[in-house]
Design goal:
mainly beta; 8-stranded antiparallel sheet; 8-stranded mixed sheet; disordered N terminus; disordered C terminus
């Protein structure tokens, strides 16, 4: 399945469990093109769209927006290779508008919590292996959730080499075993197994440029004349914009925090600062090893992770530069 993987690209590590309070936007780089690989300077990069600060039910948070021109995509500057990742958020509530908390690797292993906005009592869990679209979806609808738009919930991805578990507010909703993902023809386990970025987004499924199946899955076409869309822009203009121009309308989702507990299969030794991708051990499985090489674009000396985490996460810019399949 892997069609192009550059030998030995270097991707960085972090050390101790991480707890990101997203309202602290000093750790978010708003223009990802300026990111130089130094994940000790920024925890997140905004790859698309815009974010705003807000408070909801007494909790400071950021708002990811969706306009007719663009959705919003916020990506961690480091990757995690197995672990427990929890995002605290409130979803959108509009047909065709999808709130997402996912992990994505450089070769498109993917794990998803997604929330099509036409219902606020359900969520979708899913996973993909190296961008393969199975003939029968791996997606499952999780029902019985309490108003995902109005209520803060903690959504968790608990990822190990052997299993993948989804939780809401600490309660298990679904478990997938890696042993159950083996392709009967190839004998390959089609289970996410490569270091992955954490991504938070608000995106448009309900637009004519998306496939019909995606539009249907997302709840139908987006109504850009929805009063919520129009009033959100007006409210922001009245509160924050001092110039005479109108602020555009937008849909929105709220994200309060992300926590990460890493669970590498082998504990990194002293001085380890990064992962390195090596030659593929098979056509389907890349080899991944610990390293102390720098992840900075200019080849400067390696750094210790900004949050001092005792686990391995990886910085994104060199992956963008050196791996063929990011995003």
């Amino acid at each position: 399945m892997i069609t192009s993987l550059v030998t030995s690209p270097v991707i960085a590590r972090l050390t101790t469990p991480a707890a990101y309070t997203l309202s602290d936007t000093s750790r978010i780089l708003s223009n990802y093109t300026y990111f130089d690989g130094n994940a000790s300077e920024y925890d997140w990069v905004l790859q698309e769209g815009s974010i705003l600060n807000t408070t909801s039910d007494g909790e400071a948070a950021i708002v990811l927006t969706l306009t007719e021109q663009s959705g919003s995509l916020l990506s961690s500057t480091r990757y995690v290779h197995y672990g427990t990742i929890t995002a605290r958020l409130k979803t959108g509530r509009w047909a065709g508008v999808v709130t997402a908390f996912i992990t994505m690797s450089s070769i498109k292993d993917e794990i998803d919590w997604e929330f099509p906005g036409n219902t606020t009592t359900q969520g979708q869990t899913n996973y993909f292996w190296q961008a393969d679209i199975p003939s029968v979806t791996n997606g499952v609808t999780e029902t019985g959730l309490t108003d995902t738009y109005a209520t803060w919930h903690d959504y968790t991805i608990d990822w190990t080499p052997d299993s993948l578990t989804f939780l809401v507010d600490g309660n298990i909703t679904r478990t997938i075993l890696a042993a159950d993902t083996i392709n009967n023809v190839t004998g390959v386990s089609q289970f996410p197994n490569t270091p992955s970025r954490i991504q938070l987004s608000l995106w448009a499924a309900g637009v004519s440029s998306e496939p019909e199946g995606t539009v249907i899955w997302g709840g139908g076409l987006i109504d850009w004349a929805n009063p919520d869309y129009i009033s959100a822009g007006t409210l922001y203009h009245l509160r924050f914009v001092t110039s005479a121009h109108d602020w555009p309308g937008h849909f929105y989702a709220l994200f309060q925090s992300v926590s990460v507990q890493c669970n590498d299969t082998t504990a990194p030794g002293p001085g380890i600062t990064s992962y390195v991708y090596g030659p593929n051990s098979t056509l389907d499985t890349p080899s991944i090893a610990f390293s102390n090489a720098s992840t900075l674009l200019n080849g400067a000396s390696s750094f210790s992770g900004g949050n001092g985490m005792h686990c391995v996460l990886v910085a994104g810019v060199l992956v963008i530069t050196l791996l063929a399949h990011l995003f």
